[in-house]
Amino acid sequence: MNRCILVYLPVGKTIAVKTGKMACDKVACWWYNPRNGQAEKTGLLDRSDTMMFTPPTVGINNDWVLVIDDPEYNLGVPGICE
């Protein structure tokens, strides 16, 4: 089973992510901005087999990394090494 999913978006747009191979009922979701190294938490969401996500900004020159993880593993803030 997957504990974490990372999706790089070269252009900000709404995407569908298949999360059916994650064993958890809820997922912790973050948008990581590779342009400035900042992460924005979207919160804990109820997991479904396919989930829709829209980054904080959309369009060309708005690349993002979507981080979806199992909150049980407490993986921390993306981009922060502890």
What does this 3D model show about the protein?
With 82 residues, the chain is mainly β. The protein has one domain. The chain is built from no helices and six strands. It has a four-stranded antiparallel beta sheet with strand order 1-6-3-4, with no helix packed on it. It has a two-stranded antiparallel sheet with strand order 2-5. Strand 3 (26-33) and strand 4 form a beta hairpin.
Radius of gyration, rounded? 12 Å
- How many β-strands, per DSSP? 6
Number of helices: 0
Q: First CA to last CA: what distance?
A: 25 Å
Instruction: Note the beta-strand portion.
Output: over 45%
Helix content: under 10%
What is the multimeric organization of the chains shown?
single chain
Mean pLDDT: 94
Widest beta sheet: strand line-up:
1-6-3-4
Please give the largest β-sheet: 4 strands, antiparallel
Order of helices and strands: EEEEEE
What's the number of structural domains? 1
Q: Give the overall form.
A: globular
Q: List low-pLDDT spans.
A: none
- The helix-and-strand class reads mainly beta
Summary tags:
82 residues, mainly beta, four-stranded antiparallel beta sheet, single chain, two-stranded antiparallel ribbon, 6 strands
